[in-house]
Each structure stands twice: as C-alpha cells, then as structure tokens.
Design goal:
The structure holds two protein chains of two kinds. Chain A has three helices and four strands; from the N terminus they run αααββββ. By secondary structure, chain A is an alpha+beta fold. The longest helix of chain A is centred in the middle third of the chain and has 18 residues. Chain B is α+β, with helices and mostly antiparallel strands. The chains are: A alpha+beta, B alpha+beta. The interface between A and B is large, with 67 and 68 residues.
Chain lengths: 113, 166
C-alpha cells in the first residue's frame, strides 16, 4: 500500500492533468468565437493557467505545455510527438477541444525530476 | 504488488472511458473535448536496480541550440520540400519525422538529457492559427529548439525540448 501511494506521487496521472487542462481551456476561451487579434492572448492565457495549476499539484515534475488554436475552415492539421524519457515515471496528456469556430489542442508533457 | 498496480491502472482507465460521455452541467453545450494519452499502460519494473549517487551537480555537456536547429531544418526541408498536403500521407509523415528527428538528436550522445520532439504538419488554406508553448523547468540546464518550414500547400513545424535529469 505504501509503495502504491508513493507511485501516485511520483508518476504522471493522466486523468488529473486532463481535467486541469479542460478547465483552463474552458475558462479562457469557452463560449468565444475565433478572433485573430485575441488569439495570441488566449494561447498565452491557456498555457499560463495550465502551468500554474500544474505547479500547484506540488509533484516533482518538470512540465512542457503546448497549445495550438486554429480557426475552422476545413484545413487539415496533423500533430505527432516522439519522446525519449523514462516510461515508468514520465507521461503526456493531449486534450482536443473545439467549438463552432475553432479548434484548440493542448498537450502537457510531464518529466520526473 | 505490481499486479495490484496494473489492476488499479486498468480500473482508472475504464472509469475514465465511462466518464468521457458525461460533462458537468456548467460547461456550454456547444463545445466538445476529448482526452488522450499513450496507449501502453505504465509498466512498473520490479527489477529496477538502485542507483548510486554520482555527486554530479550539473551537466558536463549541454545541447547546442544551433546544432539542433540545423538538424530540424535539414530534416524538414529534405522530407517536405516538394510535397503537397494530403491527410493520410501527412499523418504518416508527422510520425516519421518525429522518429527521424529523435534518432538524430540521440546520435548527438549528450548524456542525462530527456528529449521531447513535437511535429505539426498543416494545410495552408488561409486559416488563422497560433501555436505557443511554455515550460516549467530549470532554465540553466534545459533548452528547446524550433524550426518551421513552408511551401505552397503546407507548413511543417518541429520543436525539440531537451530536459536535464538530475
């Protein structure tokens, strides 16, 4: 049981992080339509909010947060990532969010110290 | 002990999938979100050997950003120069590019660094787009490099993050 709880503190928990990302995205751009002059501020806000919530988790991790906001006009976008890390402790979580006028993709990578 | 861990991980996964359909009432109904992560469950290796202290305070060898930028420029230009955007092809190409870039960065043989490579390939059709990223890390040891490529029908963006392991 002790070993189990220690694992939760030192491994990347996807559900917790996924929930956190969704809340940050909803709080920043939920209910807005794509606006070119505001998108810079939105991506910054989403990323900063995610990062501050992640640091509040207090886990011994370094985090990388990436956010893509794209206007919907039928264009295609592919994203992939490859990582060289420690499989037992590190992990990533990607959240795809959309509304009528835009897509938002947020990826969080957590690397154990 | 490792079976218990695996069972709990599987139960969490099932719960997550069954919860995916529910959304708190407070969220607006016109948005949709999905969460994904890597397919393989974390495997907890019981036979990990305890490691000794090395008393090393910092990296002896660091990544050089211009060298990695050059690698990214080389790989992206070589693979994407004469291509046009197609959904199936670009799906395979992003994965291939990720693996090629990761292999080339590993060849630099810089010890104690973890690498994360992100590749985006998108179609150019006049849409607006913003990509940004921020990191919570040790700025003295960790770094990143990016390169973006564009031709008449597509754009390719590659980002490499190098993170030191103490």
């Amino acid at each position: 049981m002790d070993e189990f709880q220690a694992d939760d503190e030192t491994t990347f928990v996807v559900e917790e992080v996924g929930k956190l990302i969704k809340e940050s995205v909803e709080a920043t751009i939920g209910g807005n339509a794509y606006q070119h002059n505001r998108v810079n501020q939105w991506t910054t806000n989403v990323v900063e909010q995610c990062l501050s919530q992640l640091s509040k988790l207090g886990k011994p991790f370094k985090y990388i947060v990436t956010c893509v906001i794209m206007q919907k006009n039928g264009a295609g976008l592919q994203t992939a990532n490859a990582c060289f890390w420690d499989n037992t402790t590190d992990g990533s979580c990607a959240v795809r969010w959309e509304n009528k006028s835009m897509y938002c993709i947020v990826t969080v990578f957590g690397l154990a110290i | 002990m490792s079976d218990l861990v695996k069972d709990r991980a599987l139960k969490r996964e099932k719960k997550r999938l069954s919860d995916a359909g529910h959304r708190p009432k407070a969220w607006p109904k016109d948005s949709l979100s999905t969460v994904s992560n890597v397919e393989e469950p974390l495997h907890h290796d019981d036979t990990r050997l305890p490691t000794e202290n090395t008393y090393q305070l910092g990296p002896y060898k660091r990544h050089s950003v211009p060298v990695i930028t050059e690698i990214l420029k080389d790989v992206l230009t070589c693979y994407l120069q004469h291509e046009t955007y197609e959904a199936e092809w670009s799906r395979q190409m992003t994965k291939t590019l990720c693996e090629v870039i990761r292999a080339r960065v590993k060849e630099l043989m810089i010890p104690r660094y973890k690498t994360v490579v992100v590749v985006n390939i998108g179609q150019l059709s006049g849409q607006g787009m913003q990509i940004s990223s921020r990191c919570l890390w040790d700025a003295t040891n960790d770094t990143f490099a990016t390169y973006s490529f564009k031709n008449s029908s597509l754009f390719g963006l590659a980002i490499v993050y190098a993170v030191y392991v103490e």
